[in-house]
Design brief:
The structure holds two protein chains of two kinds. Chain A is an alpha/beta fold. Chain A contains nine helices and twelve strands. The two termini of chain A are 40 Å apart. Chain B is of the alpha/beta class. Helix content of chain B is 44%, strand content 19%. Classes of the chains: A alpha/beta, B alpha/beta. At the A-B interface, β10, β11 and α8 of A face β2 and α2 of B.
């Protein structure tokens, strides 16, 4: 696919912000996330090769070029020959946040926009990921060519995350059904070390993302956060309405007072979300479904508990 | 009644046709309304699913109300221009006298099957083309007018008189025309000869009696046009009635005299040497004589059609769209 031009981005007009994030809830979430990624404590994660750490890998005779500071006194005394002590290197957890910034995220009819929820999830999980010297890499997609921000730790990581989120979503009129698949593919190529990958999207009108997501799942712990709005599940009977798809620009005029249309719409949307859930289940990817009309942090914590 | 009706459409107030400009304006309005609706549409990410749920509306069903409304506008605009149709209506009290020669020369076979039969068939066609209320008279003549039928609407009697002719005798065209004029205008009364005409069919020179051109002048004075048909070919002959061994007699038609008769009386002259052509002449005379063209205003039809189209367009679009197209 030819690289699509960068789409201008803007903070959505009806932006509410992610809302309060109580520390107690965040701490509870931290435990859940930690369990998900099989313990992100220092030394928990193995890396290829040897390096500085606390866990013994092996003790072997000194060879020319070895760091003399690594010479193990006890082993050398026992054997009469200089030995060096090698340890399992410690790697901190790298978390990748793949965030959907397409125009369809700038929609919400309840307490906040889908984008607000996505922003909150990204902030909460980002802050958790930055604990214990973790690093956060960012991948925003849905606004032309996906943007990759390499993993950073500590304050720099938080600043990068906040800056990425502050650019908002793509303006209306850009649609790329392969944005999610491309972004996941790029994350898979860049993220060499095993880590946590969080995909935050509405998974709407996206195609062929199952394969790259499955490839990610083979190496990383993957969490898919689906954001949706109650209006996307059912439409009220408000007579004839003209709606326009923010991404494709497709204009539809529908008589919502017809029960058959509403029922069919609900059935189709339910079918779509069921298909998404079963696909994620098949890939053994954790699936958190967050609605804009509830407390997303509570929902996320409950789902991950 | 099988009178040819020309479907000419004319307008009493052609300026009203300017109202047709409303059609492009209406199209423009429809387009603008569509643009406006798009501009004020609600952003909705699930629009695709909603469209799927609503189902596909076939293009003709989507465009039909608009097309009907435009047609209604067109019909109403045309109604504004007072459309008129030209139709042929039978003339009240019209009479036609067929003056048919059945002299001996009519037995010549230069016209299929012979002159007299062709004339009879052509007369039949003529009767078919005439409006029913037109009265038809017959004057059959040879040595003198022998079979005379005053103008009547009883077609069977007319046919009977025409078919009763047999080819024999001389040609007394002047006398026959005088009889025809007398039946149309008894006592030279011009008012009784209103909307009358004489069709003279002859195949040869006037051989006996009065000068037919003089009689034509009388017809002119009474306002009776004489349409003449000269039948036959130049080199036609009939067997000599005296003896089969004698040389045959030449019986060429006399188109010059007949032309003169038509010119003097204000009619038209035709010549024919073919049965089909003869029928054509009689047929056109049948639809021309005894009918006149009248312009009838048909505004109510157009207005009604416009109203009906408008109502249908509304019925089609209101329940589904909640508005006129």
């Amino acid at each position: 696919m030819s690289p699509s031009p960068r789409i201008p981005m803007a903070s959505p007009a009806a932006r509410q912000g992610p809302g309060p994030m109580p520390h107690a809830l965040l701490d509870a979430l931290a435990i859940a996330v930690t369990q998900r990624v099989a313990g992100a404590l220092p030394g928990d994660r193995r890396a290829a090769g040897v390096g500085a750490g606390t866990e013994l890998a092996q003790i072997r005779p000194y060879a020319f070029g070895d760091d003399v500071r690594r010479i193990d006194a006890a082993a050398t005394a026992r054997s009469g020959e200089p030995h060096v002590r090698l340890e399992v290197p410690e790697r901190t957890l790298t978390t990748w946040l793949a965030i959907d910034v397409s125009a369809s995220m700038a929609f919400g009819t309840a307490r906040r926009l889908k984008w607000d929820v996505a922003e909150g999830v990204a902030l909460a999980l980002g802050r958790l990921a930055l604990r214990h010297a973790g690093r956060v890499g960012l991948m925003t997609f849905g606004a032309g060519e996906p943007t990759l921000r390499p993993p950073r730790g500590s304050k720099a990581g938080l600043v990068a995350l906040r800056r990425a989120l502050s650019t908002g979503t793509a303006v209306d009129g850009a649609h790329d059904p392969h944005a999610l698949a491309d972004a996941l593919g790029r994350v898979g190529r860049v993220a060499r070390l095993p880590g946590l990958v969080v995909v935050i999207s509405d998974f709407r009108d996206q195609r062929d993302w199952a394969r790259p997501l499955g490839a990610l799942r083979a190496r990383h712990a993957v969490l898919a956060v689906e954001v949706h709005d109650p209006r996307e599940a059912s439409v009220p009977a408000v007579g004839r309405i003209a709606v326009v798809d923010p991404e494709t620009g497709r204009r539809v005029e529908v008589d919502t007072s017809r029960p058959r249309v509403r029922a069919r719409f609900e059935a189709l949307e339910r079918e779509r979300r069921d298909a998404l859930a079963s696909e994620l289940r098949r890939l053994r990817v954790d699936h958190a479904s967050l609605s804009t009309d509830e407390d997303w942090l509570l929902q996320l914590g409950r789902r991950l508990r | 009644m099988s009178v040819a009706t020309p479907l000419a459409l004319s307008f009493g107030a052609p300026l009203g046709l300017l109202a047709l400009l409303a059609i492009p304006l209406a199209l423009l309005g429809l387009y603008a309304a569509r643009r406006r609706r798009t501009a004020y549409a609600v952003r909705f990410p699930a629009a695709g699913t909603l469209a799927l749920a609503a189902g596909v509306v076939s293009p003709w069903r989507r465009l039909l109300p608009a097309a009907l409304a435009l047609a209604a506008i067109a019909a109403l605009a045309l109604a504004l221009a007072k459309p008129q149709r030209t139709i042929a209506v039978p003339v009240e009290g019209a009479s036609v006298v067929l003056v048919t020669d059945h002299s001996g020369s009519m037995s010549a076979t230069d016209v299929e099957p012979d002159r007299l039969s062709a004339a009879e068939t052509a007369a039949e066609t003529f009767l078919d083309k005439l409006p029913k209320q037109t009265r038809v008279g017959v004057v059959a003549y040879s040595d003198g007018p022998d079979g005379t039928l005053p103008p009547t609407t009883d077609r069977d009697r007319v046919r009977g008189t025409i078919e009763a002719q047999t080819a024999a005798g001389a040609t007394a065209t002047g006398e026959a025309l005088q009889v025809a004029i007398d039946t149309l205008a008894p006592g030279g009364d011009k008012s009784k000869a209103k909307a009358s005409a004489i069709i003279l069919l002859s195949d040869g020179k006037t051989t006996t009696g009065r000068d037919p051109v003089g009689v034509a002048r009388i017809a002119k004075r009474l306002g009776i046009p004489i349409y003449t048909v000269a039948l036959g070919t130049e080199d036609a002959t009939i067997p000599n009635p005296v003896s089969p061994l004698s040389p045959p007699i030449a019986v060429p038609p006399d188109p010059e005299t007949l032309k003169q008769i038509a010119q003097v009386s204000g009619g038209r002259a035709f010549t024919s040497d073919d049965a089909g052509e003869l029928r054509g002449i009689y047929s056109s005379l049948g639809s021309k004589l005894a009918t006149k063209h009248e312009q009838r205003e048909i505004t109510p039809g157009f207005a009604g059609a416009g109203l009906v189209l408008l109502i249908v367009a509304g019925l089609l679009s209101l329940p589904r769209l909640g508005r006129l197209p």
